[in-house]
Amino acid sequence: MAGTAGGAAVGDVTLRRVCAVALLVVLLAGAGLATWRSTGGATASDPVRDLAAGLRCPACQGESVADSRSPIAAAMREVVAAQLAEGRSPDEVRAYFAERYGPEVLATPPARGLGLLLWVVPALVLLTVAVAAMRTHRRSERHRSPAPRSDQPAGRLRVRARTTWNVGALSLVGFVGVIAVIAPPGSEPAPPASAVTDPVAAQLTLARSLEQRGEYATAADVYRTALAQRPVDDIRLRLAFTLVRAGQPTPAEEAARQVLAGRPDEPDALLILGLAQRASGRPAAGSTLRRFLTLAPDHPAAPEVRRLLDAR
Amino acid sequence: MIGTIGTATLAGGLVVASAATLLWLRVALTGSAVRRPARIATGTALLAAVLTCGALEWALLSHDFTVRFVAENGGRHVSTYFTITSLWAALDGSLLLWLLILGGYATLLSRPGPRARAALQSWAMTVVSAVSVFFFALTYFAANPFRTVTAPPDGGPGPNPLLQEHPAMGLHPPLLYAGYIGLVIPFGYAVAALLVGRPGTTWLRAARGWALLSWSLLTAGIALGAWWSYAVLGWGGYWAWDPVENASLLPWLTTTAFLHATLMSRRRPPLAGWDVTLACASFLLVLVGTFLTRSGSVESVHAFTESALGPMLLVFVLVTAVVVVTLIGWRARSVPAATPPSPATGPALSRQTTLLGNGVLLTTLAAVVLIGTVLPLVAQALTGVRTAVGPPYFNRTAVPLAVAAVVLMGIAPLLHWRTGPSREILRRLAVPGYVGLAVVAAVGLASRPGMLTLAAFGGAAFVLTGTGTLLVTRVRRDTTTTWNAVAPTRKPTIGSRIRGLLTRRRAIGGLLAHIGVALVTVGVAASSAYSRTTEREIAVGQTMAIGGTAVRLATVEREGGAAEMRVTAQLVLTTDGKAAGSLRPELRYFPARDMTVSVPGIRSGLLRDRYATLLAVSPDGGRATIRLAVNPLVSLLWAGSGLTVLGGLLAIGRRPRPASAQPATTDQSESPVAVGEVGRR
């Protein structure tokens, strides 16, 4: 075909086209192979890491268990590995963590109940907008344009109406002004009961007495309120200790860690952290408590801790 | 004293803003030409905002701890610069900044404009003034920073330490706010168009420049936020899908879609639905974002109910949404009904279809980000269960959509408006397509970064080649042809070339922005797929390494002060055995707020950043735990964002209109034949 009239020019074009197609085939093959290799890599990946990447580290800010260096994340990775080795399915492992740490430990909520919205809403939006786009496209092909509308605003006010309007507007502005003057500019956030007594001190006394009566959960709430007003380590430790006794080791651990973030060798914080870890059955408990013993061998709680460690 | 003045100016602003709203409403309703009083009222509201901000700055600078905001956020130990910036370091003060910027925009918008837009302008001013009434009321009643403290302290804790780490704190929030709040003007114009009943293109021409300005500022604000997160916060990344980040991304996405919809509407049939909806959605998302980040509801539902602020904002968001939806529904009914569906006659691949496709993608992307951000809140409010939506969700949903959008972004500028791809177009698409495929093949065969990363690299290569070529041709053509038309005999000078470019700057700006986004894509893909990190505890004198990069811990220094304690690790950096400077990551502890900040040490390069964070130091100072990372191509993120902003700013301005080419109201008088011709420019 190329050899007939038209000669070299046509042949040239054909040649170029063949080259282009050949290049395209080669590139497509290369890109296909590259993509296949990239997806193929996923099968070889580490199931423990994959699962841990979908869990949020409870003690950190926005880091996954796979990435976080905190001890709690390390412990969680161990649990993941152990449970997967036992033959549990990833869903069972996730359910286990959700039960222990609350559903917020899962980085993506399960696709049921409200979690379904995460997938349904974007899909609905995609569908609606796509349909709208299609209609727009069709309509635009038919070159429809509405009849030009009148430039006139909706209505014109008569003179008398204008007077009424002016008076009304003035009184409205006056009303706003009066409200602004009369209404207190924002209610003062609950003023302290009396200027003399320190509210935090009162709360601490209350919490102590609650603790003595064994109402640990209520005491913890009061400590939390006090902590919000005076964020100091003493109250935080008190709160953490109460939480351990109230049987809530996870928030206790978090509070203890906050203290440790500022003062890594605070014995009390280490003690509470260790107790909290022990209460949640974390393997790190032993090492934390031992570190506490080396730092404060004469601490009043030291003998008790030694006894606990020996008992294990 | 200052507190009283501040409260008074705030109340005055509330009254004046109400007056301005009513005056503009009157102008709008009567079509009155007398706009002076309304304009004066708008200017006075701005003055009130300026005075209020001034009063709070004065209180901060004079350490007047009787003022509540100063007692909570001021401090004697804070430098003057950070004292000034502490105005926006906490909620109440940042609302004053909001008022100031809103007042500025309102005053700019109230300037006398073209007669053709008078009706639209007065309605838009009514809307903008009403919004400012709400924000004055919100600040005055729910978050007045000037309330007096009954027992003033001797000193304050200073602003949040995170916000004292870097001078960029002076720039980032105002930029972000300026971008955010500027979207009120396109919103105002959209509502005005709905009210006046002319969803033509007049309002679009008026709104487009404002939208571009806000979009550019918002882009700059988001980029600066990402940079701040990377260079100051020291967690190693720049984007965490955090609610605050998402709140700034949401209006950015819809405004991007809006800007592209305006392009389509110029070659219209009416796309009023798209334009109006996207303009309104952008501002609604601004309000939603403000609600999410300013009401404390993200932290906990408990914080939300603590002040009247959250409920007030929520009610305002809902009312605005209802009003907008009603208006759109009302107008949609009054516009002639759509023709019965007929088989699409247009080509499947034209610039219009790709733009529509990108609109669909961007809107869906916004929906994904919105539901991911809001769901934990909704779930907690409805069921009381705390849930979290983290990066895995966004990586699975938003990232593929974004990659697809990047690819479409590369294709669209290469196509004709209405006609399908001709042979010439196919040829134009071929080279970038080959380059894209080649990049995918090369990268994928050399490493295994994963499908999405590969697609991102390929798409970005496609955009860079295609759009780059287009840009070069355009620049070459515009610098010569424009001049030739004026003085064909003389050779173009540099000045004339620049002038030629500037008259065509809209198209060039758009292409530059696309190239910027493609560069950002490369930066994100490379840094998320190829970052390498190691973490170890080393003693002074020891070395740790990753790849060819090694650091030796030279010293650990401690400095103590009443306000701040610092531990600095001095790391000597070597690359492939050669000395390459040093890194100084720090841990800073602020006793007043009981807060530790880890500031990374970064050595930025064109191809990679060396990034070290100090995680912990042993009590004797002999050992330190260091995280060392090598992040490739992060520089492209900042360069690309800069180009995008530049492109957006360049594109502001009126379209050059050859005097005779098109009638002034193309939108109203296009004949079917003309459209095809015009479309093929």
Automatic annotation (TrEMBL), chain A:
Residues 137-157 are annotated as: Disordered. GO terms for molecular function: metal ion binding. Keywords: Heme, Iron, Membrane, Metal-binding, Signal, Transmembrane, Transmembrane helix. One of its GO terms (cellular component) is plasma membrane. The keyword Endoplasmic reticulum does not apply. Residues 43-152 form the CcmH/CycL/Ccl2/NrfF N-terminal domain. Residues 137-146 have a biased composition (Basic residues). Coiled coil: none annotated. InterPro entries: C-type_cytochrome_biogenesis (IPR051263), CcmH/CycL/Ccl2/NrfF_N (IPR005616), CcmH/CycL/NrfF/Ccl2_sf (IPR038297), TPR-like_helical_dom_sf (IPR011990). It comes from the Bacteria. Pfam families: CcmH (PF03918), TPR_16 (PF13432). The chain crosses the membrane at residues 18-36, 116-134, 165-183. PANTHER family: CYTOCHROME C-TYPE BIOGENESIS PROTEIN CCMH (PTHR47870), CYTOCHROME C-TYPE BIOGENESIS PROTEIN CYCH (PTHR47870:SF4). Belongs to the CcmH/CycL/Ccl2/NrfF family. Possible subunit of a heme lyase. This is Cytochrome c-type biogenesis protein. It comes from Micromonospora polyrhachis.
From TrEMBL, chain B:
The chain crosses the membrane at residues 6-28, 40-61, 81-102, 123-143, 177-197, 209-229, 249-265, 272-292, 312-332, 353-378, 398-417, 429-446, 452-472, 507-530. It is a multi-pass membrane protein. GO terms for cellular component: plasma membrane. Residues 314-652 form the Cytochrome c-type biogenesis protein CcmF C-terminal domain. Residues 88-295 form the Cytochrome c assembly protein domain. Required for the biogenesis of c-type cytochromes. Possible subunit of a heme lyase. This is Cytochrome c-type biogenesis protein CcmF. It comes from Micromonospora polyrhachis.
